[in-house]
Amino acid sequence: MKWILYVLTGWSTLVTGLFLASLSSNHLIQGLVMSGLVIPIILYLYQHVYRLTGVKPKAPVYSWKRLHHFISGVILAIALASLGFFIGNFQGWIDFEKWHPSEQWFIALTLNILFAFFYEALPEEFGLRGMLYDVLRYRFTAWLSVLLQTLLFVAFTIAVGQIQVLFGLAPGVSINVFYIILIFSFGICLQLLRLWTGSLWTSIGFHLAYLEIMRFAVSPHLKGVPPIITYHESVPEIGLLISICMMIIGGIIVSLVILGVKHFRRKST
């Protein structure tokens, strides 16, 4: 039953790391605390996972040799979001008003990329889509492992919010039905991206690009950051809905198609 211990330890590490990081209001400190605590522990636990499974790959999913897949994840997220904007504009749901010059948002975007990478994308993907999935996959089928990992992702977000409330802090996110559906779908998407490329860097790149698109193009007013583009919506929040659907649902569909093709090719050979 060691696999249960590894799952609980990995999940608890993520919860503890995010809670401790949220105690600071400084983005630099938040990123350093989150990645500084989570990444070393997850890499240490990975060595025990390899002994549990009896298999240690020459190039693990987090290997630098697979780093080029990071670009694949970034490009896919940008392409899907751009397609969503194009469809929205073509249908008359979105009317582009102004593209803002880079000097207005470039520095803020660069700093937020560094923050989001170390505070969110890197540690969450290493822990959830990486180690926790691999432990679950040792015990269950691939699709059940994807589902269980995603439920752990949802539970991770809810647990941190509840601990923050318990200590008299404002929760980092507002937990409601829409948000739970959103992060559940997002977790499925990210895990499938890792599966068809065999690289954790794909989901890291997609995760990071998704966050920056949402913060600087889709809903900059929510974060108070300089927008890359401003547009008029025929229906309130239609741009947000289109972008989320295109990136998350589109990412799931693309992943399932590629996984299906790879399965068919393996079966035929």
Short description:
By secondary structure, this protein is mainly alpha-helical. Helix content is 76%, strand content 4%. The chain is built from nine helices and two strands, in the order αααβαααααβα.
| Structural class designation | mainly alpha
Radius of gyration: 19 Å
**Order of strands in the sheet with the most strands?**
1-2
Estimated helix fraction: over 70%
Uncertain parts: none
Main β-sheet: number of strands, strand sense, barrel status? Answer: 2 strands, antiparallel
Number of separate helices: 9
Give the strand content.
under 5%
Overall geometry comes to globular
Query: Would you report the number of β strands?
Result: 2
Question: What does the average pLDDT come to?
Answer: 95
What's the structural domain tally? Answer: 1
Order of helices and strands: HHHEHHHHHEH
Through-space gap between termini: 36 Å
Organism: Lysinibacillus zambalensis
GO molecular function, one term: hydrolase activity
Keywords: Hydrolase, Membrane, Transmembrane, Transmembrane helix
Protein name: CPBP family intramembrane glutamic endopeptidase
